[in-house]
Design goal:
Elements (H helix, E strand, L loop, with lengths): L1 H19 L15 H6 L6 E7 L18 H9 L1 E2 L3 E2 L5 H10 L24 H5 L5 E7 L18 E5 L12 E4 L2 E4 L13 H18 L4 E7 L13 H6 L6 H26 L6 E7 L38 H4 L3 E4 L8 E2 L4 E2 L3 H9 L13 H5 L1 H4 L9 E5 L2 E6 L2 E5 L7 E4 L15 H14 L12 H8 L38 E5 L22 E2 L11 E19 L10 E9 L10 E4 L7 E20 L7 E2 L1 E8 L3
Parallel strand pairs: 1-8, 1-9, 2-11, 3-12, 4-5, 4-8
Antiparallel strand pairs: 2-10, 5-6, 6-7, 9-10, 13-14, 14-15, 15-16, 17-19, 18-23, 19-22, 19-24, 20-21, 20-22
Helix pairs in contact: 1-6, 3-8
The structure holds calcium ion (2 copies).
One calcium ion binds next to loops.
């Protein structure tokens, strides 16, 4: 599969090389360096740009920011070779909105994506970093989690300047590292023997990283300028990493809960891969012409918090060196929701080992890349180019413009940062809180009542920064919904619940009766007309004693039609007095049996007339179907019809009333 991906990249590149040929003459137009010196220096226009966006990595979860639990030698090397930005904030405090800020150069009062449900796309006409680079002849590739529009929406990456996007379009899909498939340019790339959640053979992130490496290598070898957007999903949960990964070896024996060890190992894996990437740039001799940026995507969470670790095992928002904490966490608009590790590296251009206090955020990335490449900055961008900061004001010949203020909004919360002040409103009707971060970095002392003029100013600024969100649209939603169900391996079941909105208050599974029932431990399935193997809805699930598992007839490929049959060997001749049926216990009632008959035999292949015919309800409690006492060892269940006229059948448990025939 990796080969086919490479082929796709190669063919894309060939097409591009042919199509773009003359694009070079367009290049100098957008260049905004002022001085002659810079114009000369800009001979080297069209630098490569690699943006590594790591999902969830908290501010203090890297070595260069002081972590005591996680080692990141390669990222520390990156910091030593580049510039660290302690005050460069995320665009938002959650995944999709922050990606939208990063890609469009707008703050969250102007973006189209301001909710995090996964169903909100970019609008068709919105420019992104990739789309402004395209006219300059860049190859553009994205790898990992998109989050800015599901399949068949106006927000898909291939409509926003990306030649290639490989990974997850939907965030819920991205929750599993063992998806049944990934997406490449809106089409599915199957990962055989993957079943969603933590079940499967192929760890998706390895494929994503390999594809990113291939993209960079292929374009560098073709002397094609490229933009590589590495929106890597680790260490976002589900916290999975193969035991065979070298990073697991580093943390598996730590005295933390397993999830905390997995999380640390996922960061360790990313660190190793960043090291590979930096080595690759040197190997390809493109180090001197490549800007690499590394950052988290939103503020860290207090993962694995306990009495011993009140801010989490890895203290994403608590400085392990000083004990000083950022207030809040992912999802909030205090400092802790927006602080991310942030590095930029470009040997020979950016001063190695430097730290820059510039106060900015994700909207600044698009104008920065635009200036470096000579791309045109779209109108209505909120960010500022960081080029004077990155290269030095003297080198560039102008001073770094500063933000009047930074603005964020999410889920009814609003925040403004101006200098060392942060104003936060946690709900539209709430009062503003005001913090002086110079003296109170933990935002513990609300000064709103003592600084009413400041509060009034920030209230005005917030009102002026906000305009209503205008989202993109879908032409159809079935493939998007399918991608979300793929998280749980239920992509083929259109009636399966959405994994995010699945009822959390579902009643506990029903309990099968035991009184007067045959013991089922030695039973075997002799025959099933069909079963859904891809979704692990095996026939054996109907007799495994677990109400949470169920048999479902085949609905992938060619749908198996009724009647659906199951033949069960009871292991010994018995006197059978009836049957107990338990419907599937999850939120769906797909395949719930309506009309059924049972037959009993001494032979597994020959059954006479049914002993009973029954009509069952959709109820999720056990339903009894008595029959005249009949001796036999084998039973045949024949489903004639399911509720709702469906062609499926499903059974959580099948019990048999009766007793073993006395010897
Ligand atoms: Ca995130
Ligand atoms: Ca079962």
């Amino acid at each position: 599969m990796r080969e086919s991906l490479k082929l796709t990249i190669r063919s894309l590149r060939t097409t591009l090389l042919r199509a773009i040929g003359a694009a070079c003459c367009l290049l100098p137009a957008g260049l905004s360096f002022d001085s002659q010196a810079q114009a000369a220096d800009a001979k080297n226009v069209r630098p490569n740009v690699i943006y590594i966006l790591v999902d969830e990595l908290g501010y203090y979860e890297t070595g260069f920011n002081g972590s005591r639990t996680i080692q990141t030698p390669n990222l520390d090397r990156f910091a030593a070779e580049g510039m660290r930005f302690p005050n460069l904030f995320a665009g938002s405090s959650v995944c999709a909105p922050t990606r939208c800020c990063l890609l469009t150069g707008k703050h969250s009062g102007h973006t189209s994506i301001r909710v995090n449900g996964g169903g909100t796309p970019l609008r068709a006409e919105e420019p992104t970093i990739a789309s402004i680079l395209k006219p300059l002849g860049y190859a553009t590739g994205g790898f990992g989690k998109w989050g800015c529009g599901g399949r068949d929406s106006t927000g898909v990456p291939e409509l926003h300047g990306f030649d290639l996007f490989f990974g997850y379009y939907d965030q819920v899909h991205a929750h599993t590292y063992y998806p049944p498939y990934l997406i490449r340019n809106s089409e599915e790339v199957p990962l055989p023997d993957n079943y969603g959640r933590s079940n499967g053979k192929t760890y998706s992130h390895y494929l994503i990283h390999d594809a990113a490496i291939d993209f960079i290598r292929d374009n560098a070898q073709a002397s094609m300028p490229f933009f590589a957007y590495l929106a890597y999903t680790p260490p976002h949960g589900i916290f999975d990493i193969p035991d065979t990964d070298p990073a697991w070896e580093l943390y598996k024996d730590q005295p933390w809960p397993e999830q905390a060890r997995r999380y640390a190992a996922m960061v360790g894996m990313i660190d190793r891969q960043v090291g590979e990437l930096l080595d690759l740039l040197a190997e390809l001799s493109i180090d001197q012409n490549t800007l690499v940026i590394f950052s988290g995507d939103n503020g860290g969470f207090d993962y694995f918090a306990s009495a011993d670790y009140p801010r989490g095992v890895h203290s994403a928002n608590k400085d392990p060196r000083t004990g000083i904490e950022f207030r809040g966490r992912k999802g909030e608009l205090y400092e802790g929701g927006l602080r991310v590790p942030f590095l930029a590296r470009w040997p020979g251009k950016i001063t190695a080992g430097s730290v820059n206090p510039f106060l900015g955020y994700f909207p600044d990335i698009l104008p920065t890349i635009a200036e470096l490449s000579g791309a045109e900055i779209p109108p209505a961008v909120d960010g500022l180019s960081l080029v004077p900061t990155l290269f030095g004001e003297q080198v560039v010949g102008r001073s770094q413009p500063q933000h009047e203020y930074l603005y964020w909004e999410i889920a009814g919360q609003t925040a403004i940062r101006q200098g060392t002040w942060r104003a936060v409103r946690t709900a539209p009707e709430a009062n503003w809180e005001l913090y002086d971060l110079a003296n109170d970095p933990g935002e513990s002392l609300d000064l709103a009542t003592t600084q009413p003029e400041l509060v009034a100013k920030f209230d005005r600024l917030a009102a002026s920064a906000h305009s209503p969100a205008v989202e993109g649209t879908f032409t159809r939603t079935d493939r998007h919904e399918r991608d979300r169900r793929a998280k749980l391996g239920q992509q083929d079941d259109p009636n399966a619940p959405d994994p995010l909105t699945e009822a959390v208050s579902r009643p506990p599974p029903a309990v099968m009766p035991t009184e007067g029932m045959l013991e089922n431990r030695t039973w075997k399935i002799v025959r099933a007309t069909s079963e859904n193997i891809a979704n692990q809805k095996f026939a054996a699930n109907a007799i495994d004693g677990d109400p949470k598992t169920h048999w479902h007839t085949r609905f992938t490929g060619k749908v198996a039609k009724p009647p659906h049959e199951l033949v069960i060997d009871l292991g010994a001749e018995s006197v059978i007095r009836g049957f107990v049926y338990l419907a599937r216990q999850d939120a769906s009632s797909n395949g719930a049996i309506k009309d059924v008959e049972f037959a009993i035999s001494d032979s597994p292949v020959e059954f006479g007339k049914p002993v009973v015919h029954a009509t069952l309800t959709k109820d999720k409690t056990p339903q009894s179907v008595p029959c005249p006492p009949t001796a036999g060892r084998y039973i045949l269940l024949r489903v004639l019809a399911a509720h709702g006229g469906q062609e499926f059948a499903s059974v959580a448990e099948l019990g048999v009333m009766g007793e073993l025939k006395s010897q």
